[in-house]
Amino acid sequence: MTATAGVIIRNNEGFVMGACSHPLGRKGDPTTTEAKACLHAVIFGEEMGFRDLVVEGDALTIIKKLKSDSVDRSVIGNIVSEIQRKRLSFVTLSFEYTLRKTNEAAHALATQEYNLDNPSYWIEEVPTKIEPIIANDQRRL
């Protein structure tokens, strides 16, 4: 079974600027999968041309590692280092922990399996099945 990253980029008003579903390869260690998903979120923001990015994730371990200034020598250290090197592409790049219930749209996007072989991208929209979740998230903002 394969893992998929679901990424939704919103502006400061909560409106969707872009979304992607990106295959990560075979499911393995959940921490590694979450780290890879975070990396793809940063890469997607970079490719979309954003200069300021706040990455929200529900994997507290990953968020703590990304906020730390110390060298990560864990199994995901190379992924953490790659994400931190990407800071040079942004004016500001920060990482915030969010509860799973406030991250439902990205989780739903990851589990919908739109295309397991290639990434799928949406600009200023999300797949129809995700729209009600986005609307619910916007009410929470």
UniProtKB/TrEMBL annotation:
Ranges where the RNase H type-1 domain occurs: 3-111
The record's annotation in InterPro entries points to: RNase_H-like_dom_plant, RNase_H-like_EbsB-rel, RNaseH_domain, RNaseH_sf
The name on file for this protein is: RNase H type-1 domain-containing protein
Q: Name one GO molecular function term.
A: RNA-DNA hybrid ribonuclease activity
What PANTHER family does this protein's entry cite?
Answer: BNAC02G40300D PROTEIN, RNASE H TYPE-1 DOMAIN-CONTAINING PROTEIN
Leader sequence range is none
Provide an example Pfam family for this protein.
RVT_3
Instruction: Check the record and name the CDD domains matching this protein.
Output: RNase_H_like (cd06222)
Per the UniProt record, the lineage of the source organism begins with:
Eukaryota, Viridiplantae, Streptophyta, Embryophyta, Tracheophyta
